[in-house]
## 1
Amino acid sequence: MFEKLKQFRDLRSKAKTIQNVLSEIIIENEASGIKLVMDGNQKIQSIKIQENLTANDVEKILPNLFNDTIKKVQRVMAEKMQAMGGLDQFKM
């Protein structure tokens, strides 16, 4: 029982370490005059929109830009987790 508690504590510690590493990763993505910056935890850091874009333009561009940026972040997240040994070493 105590071994399982130790594994759980180690797992929480490793997850926190991974989260901290991911928060330092910054992905910038740009499309048609909109720039999106997101960290490795998929938190948006900034959005910059050129002044000449209309609301209609923004509505068309943003969904694809968000989806593409999230895919890029997830790819980097997977690479980092794999490099750090991931979480699969803690089997319960």
Note: Residues 2-83 form a domain with the Ybab; Chain: A; fold (CATH 3.30.1310.10).
## 2
Amino acid sequence: MAEKKQIPLRLSANLYNAIAAWAEDDFRSVNGQIEYLLTECVKQRKEDGKYVGQEIDKPIELDIK
């Protein structure tokens, strides 16, 4: 397997908690879930030349408490 690149990543607490809950549902680590989501986004972009969402740069509101 190719060596993986380590990068620092800062997330809001709400986003982290949402990803952590999703990762738990999918039986992945938070790191594994982030890598999975990024991989899916890159695949989607390669398939149709578009990002997953049309408003990818628009800030999101997470209604998580």
Note: Residues 45 and 51 are 5 Å apart (CA to CA).
